[in-house]
């Protein structure tokens, strides 16, 4: 029995990422593949550390790239709440792909999905989407090569593609893939077609085969399994995937959750709030200082260490040193928390400035006649 | 056991319209209601003859009208083939409502529906939709007060409304109302939301309650039952309905079908084709001339008589005279067919000229930024 759940709408429990990979049928990113990527640039630490750990057809898309065929990137955001570090992590990686391969990016904001699955109004979701877009663009995506797709606003472009997908997906399939009951609303059932659409957009627009690479959390795989299943029949290349693990919560759980503010660091959090949240983080420390000095801590279960691992310590040597010092009892949780707080606040200070600067950029971006 | 089927996608067998009315729970249009309508203008012959025979909340919408609240009209067309007389009939009636009550009309062309339910391309469906639009506008709808909504092109306006509807409709409901199996595609399941949307469009756009009256075939009731069920919860008035029976085929069956060209008269048919088709029509005549002179014909089962009844003989006295002459064996089928052929061809000659003139009008019409 699985003690965890990973679907596009629910990620709970302690996730066995190998089992998920086996269950979904995705391919591990191994050393050979990482070695191959070295050709294009220094492999991102999220690749080296197995945070982006699984894929579908990455070799194929690199073969095409080597043959001179550029791909497009596609990722997205379900704008149900403020951006937190769990969103920032894969976006940083996506930005690295954009820079390394000099490719375009479709960024889909699924306001329709959130309306259908959450108790939110389209109006509120739209405001949230704008805030999320500031974070995305604030990370430095090339505005000339990045298109923001707000589904309800850009639906004229997406809908004909979504119809083509929908025509090839039965309720049986949607039920099997997403676990829908008969009580699911008919918008939820249709929705995956809208998420598939941008994967085929470049090929449709250009009238020729343009491969698409989707970096995202592995919880989104069900959507893209559906998209891949119908692709060939529609005359589009199957979208290729590069999947990351979930960004951990400060409670040490596998996924940072928007619904629990205390274990989640938002991009707009103040230094004081960050200090408070990190201060309460779950660590691998012992009950007493003496015990920890003697026995050492356990970085494997420590949220503070995971944050360094996933995002705040890019240098592998320094990360290992931190791990060793913890295990040897040379550094205590309080000190570690203070350092992480400093790192997060330094990051957020810069990011908050950049997301403010992004306002002008986001306001000027257009797609399908849509402008914020 | 019902020996007929009436759903938005299938109308077969000899329809018991009273049973359909009972099953769907719609209200008969009785003499009192027709009397009430007399106040606004001479009741259309399709009302007098029980062709438009059933309704939902027509008294309510007239109450509002009497209190100075105008309604909007909404009808539509699934553009899967050329326009035939079966489409023209209810549109003539809709035009009469527009003129009589001086109201606006939304005309929805459901290219998405036809794509999802038929083996057709969006490209071909769009071309058909344009041809259908010529027929609609050619009937004389006021271009200032009529909006043509081609779903894939006007989806930006429809989609947020469709999402609101979809959120309130479960698969169970869709299954119960439309008879979907698990093999239905997820676009088909969602589609009813798109057909509901225009019913709420005026209220949404104006930001206040605008009643909506939908004249259409009773086969469309399942869609509007769904729309009515969700309306109040969404803060919109329930759409009101006025339903007609199906236009008969030349084979005497209850519905003219696009799929059998021989029993169907298209608006672009030549006089020669019409003559041929009517010549082969099923009548209530006897085997021999002698027998018919003696026993008389049966207009009740005769396609030729039905065509006069539904569309080509507006004068009740002349219609009765025709019926009597048939029953008395005073007129034979050949003569009747020749007269009907003449009437149809006279109508089509004028209509074909008007649909050509409509080209300029249709080309100049816009909705949601869409222009053909």
Quick description:
Two copies of one chain form a homodimer. Chain A is 53% helix and 11% strand.
N-to-C SSE series of chain A?
EEHEHHEHEHEHHEHHHEHEHHHHH
Contiguous low-pLDDT stretches of chain A (5 residues minimum) are: none
Mind describing the biggest β-sheet of chain A? 7 strands, mixed
Query: How large, in whole angstroms, is the Cα Rg of chain A?
Result: 21 Å
Major sheet of chain A: order of its strands?
3-4-9-8-5-6-7
Oligomer: homodimer
List the helices and strands and how they pair.
The structure is a homodimer of 372-residue chains.
Chain A: E1 5-7, E2 10-12, H1 17-24, E3 27-28, H2 31-38, H3 45-48, E4 52-56, H4 58-66, E5 72-77, H5 85-101, E6 104-109, H6 111-117, H7 122-138, E7 146-150, H8 155-167, H9 171-178, H10 186-206, E8 212-217, H11 221-234, E9 240-244, H12 271-279, H13 289-295, H14 303-312, H15 316-327, H16 333-364
Parallel strand pairs in A: 5-6, 5-8, 6-7, 8-9
Antiparallel strand pairs in A: 1-2, 3-4, 4-9
Helix pairs in contact in A: 6-7, 7-16, 8-10, 9-11, 10-11, 12-16, 14-16
